[in-house]
């Protein structure tokens, strides 16, 4: 039975995509039943996978996101002054990370497919930990940019690699909540990173390591980059440690929504519905931030933004994994989704510019527009998927497959007349 679970292209709820007709059974790639599973035994197996695989994946992603986002906390602690960064050089430093992240995204996930997640994911984890540690010893923009480039290269394959790995163990309807169980580490890392940074800044220096360098040294053993800066503009008269702590509550709310929304998505086996429901919350938060100068209103806006934005990444990965058939296509699809998402991160590094402080109308305006774009495109995708499924329902399956060999039928993948888009 574990073999059935491990090969996700062979174990699916229903490769036809219909959510009303079929019970969860094993199918081949042409949507033909191969074996029925005992629900009780399957439940025990699923729990075993939950206990053995998800916690380890979550821990790796927690450290990954802390290492990625700690530069925002380091900025509050004097990184710009110590490295002599002026003008847009901080934004340049952030951009270097995203450039390598985007370049290595798909190659890393293909390597994860062919070399095996058991080798690739631990190697990437070791690599980004070393890079974070090395950041504590940089002294100028050039050395910092070099380390950030390597950090992006190592971290590029982790998020899609873990998503791909989990997709080999879980059914399509089970996947969204399991992905959320490790992606929740992103907002938790934001919360924990702020708490950890505030604690580290109270420690005595160690040799040449002090202030922000201690953050990278100890932690080395998008919103994430700019949340500490935004909080500083809301509460400019508070101490650095106090500002670090103010970043924690919004991330806690984001963590809650990262678990809640995908859980409901898995419970009702609907992803596009929640794609449509979450962007308005994010948009409302950005409208509040742009329309008001009251610090309490703006701080409250960060909670709405976090609640509405964090689940989107989980839903994107789960939806793409649920709507591709072959194992290789799934690896490529997840890598492409994450790569495109991080192009948005690259744009974001040049949206929050020094001259636009403290209101950051450009950055927050672009985020508001992005939320509206997500709402419109997800709604259109939902309607198109329903229309295409209805069109497929009217096809003569026997006539379309007549004369094809078994191999040709398998190679049809999403073009197979029994395939239905998962909603």
Automatic annotation (TrEMBL):
A Pfam family that this protein carries is MFS_1
Q: Name one GO molecular function term.
A: transmembrane transporter activity
For the region Disordered, give the residue spans. Answer: 1-23
**Keywords assigned by UniProt?**
Membrane, Transmembrane, Transmembrane helix, Transport
Query: Where would you find this protein in the cell?
Result: Membrane
Q: Where is the composition biased (Basic and acidic residues)?
A: 1-13
Per the annotation, which location comes first and is thus the protein's main one?
membrane
> What membrane topology does the annotation report for this chain?
Multi-pass membrane protein
The record's GO CC annotations read: membrane
Question: What InterPro entries does its record include?
Answer: MFS (IPR011701), MFS_trans_sf (IPR036259)
Parts of the chain that traverse the membrane: 49-66, 87-104, 116-137, 149-167, 179-203, 247-265, 272-291, 297-319, 331-353, 365-384
**Top-rank taxon, per record:** Eukaryota
From the Swiss-Prot or TrEMBL record, give the protein name. Major Facilitator Superfamily protein
This protein's species is Aspergillus parasiticus (strain ATCC 56775 / NRRL 5862 / SRRC 143 / SU-1)
């Amino acid at each position: 039975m574990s073999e059935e679970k491990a090969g996700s292209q062979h174990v699916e709820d229903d490769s036809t995509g219909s959510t009303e007709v079929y019970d969860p059974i094993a199918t081949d790639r042409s949507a033909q039943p191969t074996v029925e599973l005992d629900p009780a035994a399957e439940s025990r197996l699923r729990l075993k996978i939950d206990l053995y695989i998800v916690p380890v994946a979550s821990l790796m992603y927690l450290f990954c996101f802390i290492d990625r986002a700690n530069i925002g906390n380091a900025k509050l602690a004097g990184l710009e002054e110590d490295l002599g960064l002026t003008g847009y050089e901080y934004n340049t430093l952030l951009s270097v990370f995203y450039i390598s992240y985007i370049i290595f995204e798909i190659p890393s996930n293909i390597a994860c497919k062919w070399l095996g997640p058991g080798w690739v994911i631990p190697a990437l984890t070791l690599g980004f930990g070393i890079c974070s540690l090395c950041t504590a010893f940089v002294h100028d923009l050039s050395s910092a940019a070099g380390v950030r480039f390597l950090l992006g290269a190592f971290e590029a394959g982790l998020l899609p690699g873990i998503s791909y790995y989990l997709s080999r163990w879980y059914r399509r309807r089970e996947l969204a909540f399991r992905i959320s169980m490790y992606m929740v580490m992103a907002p938790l890392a934001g919360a924990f990173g702020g708490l950890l940074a505030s604690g580290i800044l109270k420690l005595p220096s160690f040799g040449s390591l002090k202030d922000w360098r201690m953050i990278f040294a100890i932690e080395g053993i998008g919103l994430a980059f700019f949340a500490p800066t935004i909080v500083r503009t809301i509460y400019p008269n508070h101490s650095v440690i106090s500002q670090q702590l103010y970043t924690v509550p919004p991330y806690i709310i984001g963590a809650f929504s990262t678990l809640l929304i995908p859980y409901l998505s898995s419970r009702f086996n609907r992803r596009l519905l929640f794609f449509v429901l979450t962007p308005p919350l994010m948009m409302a938060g950005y409208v509040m931030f742009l329309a008001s100068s009251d610090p309490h209103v703006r701080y409250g806006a960060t909670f709405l933004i976090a609640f509405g934005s964090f689940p989107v990444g989980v839903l994107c990965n789960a939806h793409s994994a649920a709507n591709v058939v072959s194992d290789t296509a799934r690896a490529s699809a997840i890598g492409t989704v994450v790569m495109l998402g991080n192009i948005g991160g690259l744009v974001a590094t040049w949206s929050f510019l020094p001259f636009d402080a403290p209101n950051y109308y450009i950055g927050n305006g672009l985020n508001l527009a992005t939320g509206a774009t997500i709402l419109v495109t997800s709604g259109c995708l939902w309607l198109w998927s329903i229309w295409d499924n209805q069109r497929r329902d009217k096809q003569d399956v026997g006539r379309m497959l007549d004369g094809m060999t078994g191999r040709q039928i398998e190679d049809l993948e999403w073009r197979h007349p029994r395939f239905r888009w998962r909603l």
